[in-house]
Amino acid sequence: MVSPSNHCAIFSLILKAQWNYDLKKLRGKDLMSRRDNSRRYSVAPQAIRIIAALVILREKVLRPILAGVGKPRMGRKPKT
């Protein structure tokens, strides 16, 4: 079992890993670029709409579909 203090550390590592993954994908698609000699990133104006569409697609469509895949159906067994 994970203690509460370790739980927060693990959760922050997962968020960091997800952020790094998303950042690499956005940079690979040329939707974000790193500023010179900085840890900051810039987003092209036309890329903002694309990024917003990808976030909405993931949160509103893909996540609910994937959440319902593993749930068993309740009710009677079919007669076969």
Descriptive labels:
8% strand; elongated; two-stranded antiparallel sheet; mainly alpha
How would you describe this protein?
This protein is 62% helix and 8% strand. The radius of gyration is 19 Å and the shape is elongated. It has one domain (4-69). With 80 residues, it is mainly alpha-helical. It has two helices and two strands.
Quick description:
Helices cover 62% and strands 8% of the residues. By secondary structure, the chain is mainly alpha-helical.
Amount of helix: 55-70%
Shape designation? elongated
Name the structural class. Answer: mainly alpha
Summarize the helix and strand pattern as letters. Answer: HEEH
Rg, alpha carbons: 19 Å
Q: Gap between N and C termini, in Å?
A: 43 Å
Number of discrete helical segments: 2
Number of domains: 1
Average pLDDT taken over every residue: 81
